[in-house]
Structures are given as structure tokens and as C-alpha cells.
Amino acid sequence: MPLKAAAPLCARALIAVAACGALASGASDSERPKSGPVAVLKASEVKPGMHAIGWTVFEGTEAEPVPIEIIGAWKNMWGPGQDIIIGKMGGRAARTNVAGGMSGSPVYIDGKLIGAVALRLSVFSPDAICGITPIELMLEINDLDKTRPSDTKAPGPGQQVAGLNPAPDFLHNAAMVPIDTPISFAGFSQETMNAFAPTLQQMGIATVAGGAGSSLRGSKPAADWKTSLRPGESVAGVLVSGDMSMTGLGTVTYNDGKRILAFGHPFFNLGPVDMPMSKGDVLMVLSSAYQPNKLANATEIVGALRQDRHSGIMGTLGEEAPMIPVTVTVRSLNVDGSARAEKKLHFHVFQQQKWTPYLMMMTLFNSLSGLNEFSEEATYRLSGKIGFEGGQAPVELNTMQTSGELPAPAPMMLAGWWGDHFNRLYVNNVENPNIKDVNVTVDLLPERRLVSIESAWISSNEARPGDELPVKVFLRAYRGERIERQFTIKLPPGIAKGEHRILLSDAETLNRVQNVIEAGNHFIDISQTVSLLNQERSNDRLYISLLESSPTAYYDDKTLPNLPLSVLNVMQSGRSLNRELTTLPETASEQMSLPFDYVVAGSYTLKVDVK
Questions:
Q1: Which of 116, 276, 482, 489 is 20 to 30 A off residue 469, Cα-Cα?
Q2: Which among 463, 451, 507, 508 has a CA at the least distance from the CA of 489?
Q3: What pLDDT score does 375 carry?
Q4: pTM for this model (two decimals)
């Protein structure tokens, strides 16, 4: 619901009444600002030399006054007709400088709200020079609630668009830039921060150590939400909560009793958003001429963020933004398979098309990297289930990962595989997934379990339809002995005469074609995506397939093997132009698979002449 239609005092009325002087001041300069209607002063009425008071938290939860001397207006800084008010902060801010987490600090002149501290000048500035986003720009946040900005800060290929990389040095040295929104991490290991911080920094996101109270779990608002988030107090957007947490801190600019405005600049510029919103408890402000930041703990959930736009964020108190509950069980196993140690983690993840896969990857890696058994020679065996609302069948996932020739460690490879499966759900062009819960178990095996297919042998290269052929396959274990397995493959009674091939392969060989076809099909829905994910072969098995010279068609989530040419021609002529039909000249009919408690790699082909 638009802010101007639902708030007790609409944006246009608030500006008009304040301009006429008919609305009483919300508070004097010496009183802490309160929630509720407040008089405003337009940016055009703010003059150089005026004395203002800003409010922000330096310690705890109580906002403190900060004297600000108005320098003037920087014309068209935010865009055509969108000026920024420039001020010089005094008091405690003169020592700390304009710190991350101060974004949104409300600024008043004679008790009238003029805007929010949102920008800072350069780095290594000896003065606490700030840019103030006029309140009239922030009150427009909800006017375009159907649009999604193109320059979103989010992981993935889209992060390289113009404006998302760190600004060039000359801009940092000469212009006002938005104050970094510090993303606080609690419960994350140093290995995780080292691995993921560069990607976040590339998006212009500052990472700091932080904390979270025990009440920061789930997304249900606390009982005291009605009296929370007064202007000047700390507010946080919650990306992850629970046994590990990830939150972005800022300051409340305006609170009408139900809806709040904050930051004065974008969080991630996501546009319409559903993100839990919490209170914050500031430990201290780290003073620095380079990158000052508030160190804080996120505390209780009190509402939900609904808009994230270029002039600020808008949240609603008392409302809930559902998160995805995740349970990760990590077990360290002995050589005989018995459990030596186990830990269980519970946390919740923010739902968003690009952020959810990245957060799932990051939290799984973090669940593994904090182990004492975290080592180069270990093997990780994962089994997981992604549940959905509404009766949709779950995704069942199984894989193993061990270090190979690639430079990335096994936990990162496993986390990337895990995140990719969520990405395939969220890039769906037909509908958004409605995930109910996620459960994953990772067994840590104390050795590198990797076997490569070396060769194979068949008792006779000549056979007849329906014959059973004894086959031996030889695999080489990593730094181990040669492994021999025997099995029997039965030729189909209706197999055509002539030369055929028996393919012994790993899962990747069979999954590769299907994954490419899925990536090129933009019209599959969630149920079809789930079906394709569940059709994937697990890499701890050896697959035996019969290759035949007849076409296979792939249509949505269906694989149609051994199609007669007449049927294929009918399908191609009758298909919709916007639906992908992919064909291959031969068919790989999977006959059987052999389980291994190893990662199986490679392939080998045997030839058989059917008489």
C-alpha cells in the first residue's frame, strides 16, 4: 500500500502543512525526537549558516544530539532537481567523523525535519562533512512501488553493471558519496570472511564484525514493536538470523507510528522488498578519517522493510517478512563410518532472487569452515531437501565433493554446487519458488575419496538381442589400489542389429547435456525445475548406459529417447515458437548404476556388435 495513501499523514500534506506553518513542531532542538507527525522544512528554505541538530546513537540505544552547521546546497547531486544539503557535523561526530551506520540520522532546524544524514565527503577528510538527503525526496520512496531499479546491488552477473563497482579514485577524492552501510557478521569464521568479503566489497558493501542478540531469530515481530525505532535510533535490515547473522545497520529518519523512513540512500537498491527489520544496540563508533563505522548488535525484529530505493528505505512496524528456515547438520565420521562429532545449526535466510542463492552458499561454507576437521584431504558427502509450500514435491539433493586439481577447496566447491541449485530455482522466469524449509546434512569423511574410471572389459564383443553380457570395470583410487567391479548388462530384446556402444561414465557426463538444455529454456515453471533437479544423477555412482543411433528430444523437463523420425518431425512442426525443443542425434539409455562411497570421475566406452 503506498505510503502517501496509508500513513496517518501523507507525504504531500505533510510538506504543504509544514510550509504553511500550521503544524506544530514535533520537538524542540534539545528533546529527543518522537514518533508521529512532524513539521518539515523544504531544502529550498535551508540557507547557509543555519544551525541544525542531528540525532544518532553513539552507544547503546539512546540517540544523542549532534550540532550541524549548514554550508549550503549541492545542486542536482542526486539527479535533475534533486539537491543535497551540505553540513559540517560537530560534537562527538567531529571526532568520529561521518560513520557507517549514521545513514538516516534525522536533522532538524528549529524543530522542523529537513532530512537525513546520508553522504560523506571523500576519505581522509579532516572535517566531518556530511550530505543530507532532503526529507521531501525520502517521502517519495513509495511512489514508484512497481518498478525494480536496474543498478541493484546483488551477487551474480548483474553486479558488473555501471555504478556497482567501487567508485574511481577521483570521485572518492572530490565528491559526496553515500555513507557505507556496514554489513555486520556474527557467527561467521575468518575463513568465510576471507572468501566472500572481496565479492561484497566489489558491490560497494562494507563488511564489519558485529553481533546479534539471542532474540534475532526468525521474522516474527517482538511484542514492543509499537514503541520501537524512534527517529535517531538504530535500525537494521536482516539478511541472515539465528546461529549466524548478517545485518545492515542504519538510522531511523522518520516514524509516523506505523511506517519508518531510514538511511537517506539505498541499502541494496532492490526496489520492492520483503526483508525483516530489527532494532540495533550500538557498542561504539570506531573513529577514523578513512572508514569510521558503528559497531553494533542487531536485536529484536520489529517489522519488515518494504521499499529500498535511491533516496532511502521504507519499513512497516509490526509486519512480518517471511524468511527461509534452514537446518544444517554437520557430522565428522571415523573411517568405519561411525560419528565422532556432530553439530546442528539453525538459521533463517532472506528471500530474494539473487541474494538467496548467494546467502545459501555463504552459510553452508561457513557451517563447514569452522570445523577443526576442516582439511585438504577430507571428503564431504551432502544430502539435502528443499521443501515447498502448497504441496509441491521437494527437491532431493545428494552429492560428494573432495579436493581435486582445481584450486578451490572442497567446502567452497560444495557450497557453490549448493548455491547453484537455489539459483536455478530463483532464475525461473515463470514464477517465484515458495520455499517452506531447507534441511541439509553434511558428513565429513577423513580421507580424499576419489576414483577415476581407468578401463573396462567385456567378455565378448559379439552378442544377440536379449543377451546378458558380463562386464568388468577398473577404477583407480586417489593414492590407492586399483578397484575392480563386475556386473552384467542385459541388451534390450528389440535392439537393432549392428554396432552399439556401452558407456560407463560419471554423473557429470550424463548431467551436462540436460543442464545446458535447462539453461536455454526460459519457460519452465517451478514444478518442472524441481523435476529436472531431481533427475540429476549423483556423483557417487558409476552409470552404465547403452548408446544407440536414434534421436533423443528434450522438451521442458521431459526426456524422450529413441524417437522415430516421423514422430520427431510432428513434434517440431507442432511446437510453440517460444518453447524450446532440443534434439541429439543419439540416445543414451541408462541401464543401471553402481553405488560407490567415492566421487566417481571419468568415462569409458565399450563396443558391441549385435548380430
A1: 482
A2: 463
A3: 62
A4: 0.84
